[in-house]
Structures are given as structure tokens and as C-alpha cells.
Amino acid sequence: MARCHPGAGIWGFAAVLVVLLCGPRDLRAQGSVEGPSVPVAAGPCFSCHGPFGRPETIDYPIIGGQSAAYLASALRAYRAGQRSGELAELMAPFAQPLDDRAIEDLAAFFSSLRSLR
């Protein structure tokens, strides 16, 4: 099974700080994102997908700059158990507790990182 980097916790925390300090200034104009609450909620995502949704390893997909509709659809599929495979097993525990609003907010946030793609 794919695992996150052992030091991913500190890197996830560092990524949250970087996004809070250097990320898009007005996230509300780009979706239903509400200020810094989305980057904090996205902390677990940074652990594997890396800062700004760009992983440091090829084991995980780039989600920064990805289509918001695609990201939301993928998260809903992980939440509903409609995807299979190693990455689905890894993603399901993260997606299952998310409600539709959280999914839309995360999708809008990572999609807003388009300039970093």
C-alpha cells in the first residue's frame, strides 16, 4: 500500500503556513472558499499531495490546478466507495467524513492553485 512520507506531518504543517502566508489573496472570488479555513482543512491533503497540491513523489497525483469539477467528483466517488485500488483505499478514510460543502471548498481551493501547475 502506498504510504505518505514519514516526515509528511511537518511538511503538511509547513505547507499550510506557506499557503496561508503566500497563497491566493482572495479565495472567495474563485469559489465558495472561505478564507484560511480551507487551507487548514486541506492539511491532510498536503501530507501526500504536497504543498500547493504538487506531490514530491510520483506516487500521488497533482491536484493543484486540477478542474474543480473533477476534484469534487473524485472526492465524492472516494467517499461513496465507487473507486477501487490502492489509492482508493488510501483516500477513502479522508473523503468519507467530508460533507458536500467541504468537498466543494477543497475542490475550489486546489483548483485555484492553477498558476502553480
Automatic annotation (TrEMBL):
Entry keywords, A to Z: Electron transport, Heme, Iron, Metal-binding, Transport
PROSITE patterns referenced in this protein's UniProt entry, alphabetically: CYTC
GO MF term set: electron transfer activity; heme binding; metal ion binding
SUPFAM superfamilies in UniProt: Cytochrome c
Cytochrome c domain boundaries: 30-114
Protein name in the entry: C-type cytochrome
Species: Neoroseomonas soli
